[in-house]
Amino acid sequence: MLIDESKLPPVLPLRVEFQAREPQFIAAFPGSALHGAIGRALWKTVCAFPRRRECAGCPIVNRCAYPALFATLAPAVEGLERLGITSQAPRPLVLSPEEGWTRPSGHPRPINEGAMIPFRVTLIGRAIEDLAILVVALRKAAEGGIGRTAAQGPEKPAARYARAELTRITSADGSQVIFDAADQQLRACRPTYLQPSPRPEIDRVSIRLITPLRLVRDGHVCGRPRPADLVLALARRANALAELYAGGGEAVDEAAVERVAEKFEVAECATRLVHVRRYSARQGQKMDLPGVIGHFRWRGGAALERLWPLLRFGELVQVGKGAALGFGRYAMAANDP
Fold first, then answer.
1. Measured between alpha carbons, how far is residue 212 from residues 176, 273, 325, 326 in Å?
2. How many CB atoms lie within 10 A of CB 197?
């Protein structure tokens, strides 16, 4: 079996909406700002020992939502090195700007008062249990702001961030309201389980990159990723998440799916390199993160059908370097002409 869906962790993708309470400028790629704001808000909400410099060694590190979601330490489990997991583990929370909210030009986006700022948050495995705490953190993050005020302008250092409000959380497809600011009620939401099912008849697929994709090959970010590059990165990510958040066990045969992906025919690869600049508070410096945007069109017939569950899983959990910061989100269309 190439892919055992029953070993993949459940996921809960959510659409979150902040509403601007004053005019402001949002970063060209808001993923980093969202990650930083939500992480700070969660830390302020749950940290019992705020004078500590790091979570490692804290007496309640294994019971606290902040390290679980934003500073996830690798467990002392033998064999994690083969999955590329050392001291830090892949986060069970990933976020992403919605489509159209990444500006390749790099210029901040002006936002009027009252405008909605949408983004996606996906919880993986046990992180789903922290939904209520996350909602509290999202409210605080919105109040603290993620954009620069219009008075400061788009480029000046932020003396303060522009105010916003958490107004609504829904399921990713918008069919179910999880939280609404009007009634302050948090409703249960069923997570997504990828269960074994008949493969659809697929001859070709179009993959659209919603946020920059950062796949590394030979020490460099791939400017024109091959199908095998994406599929192998997905397989490794799926196995790491299965090991950490679904009870362990290999969910994907990495070597086998790579061989299958090599059978794909690339009908189109329209990508270009972009550079995302962010400030890392942890490292205390500005960082330049290259990635690619654009789209692919692949033909694969039976090979594509065999890998379809893995590609669907990647739609939800993202792929490549910086997935927790919002990179590597894509959307697929099967049999797209």
1. 28, 9, 11, 8
2. 9
Same domain, yes or no: 248 and 319: yes
Strand partners, 17: 118, 168
Q: Is residue 52 domain-shared with residue 176, that is, in the same domain? A: yes
Token representation of residue 113: 């008062």
Q: Which residue has the tokens 């079996």?
A: 1
* Pair 36, 126 in one domain: yes
- pLDDT tens digits, 257-302: 999 999 999 999 999 999 887 766 555 667 788 899 999 999 988 8
pLDDT digits (tens, 9 = 90+) for 238-254: 999 999 999 878 899 99
Q: Is the pTM of this model over 0.85?
A: yes
Q: How many CB atoms lie within 10 A of CB 228?
A: 17
Domain boundaries, position 172:
11-186
Domain stop point among 186, 218, 239: 186
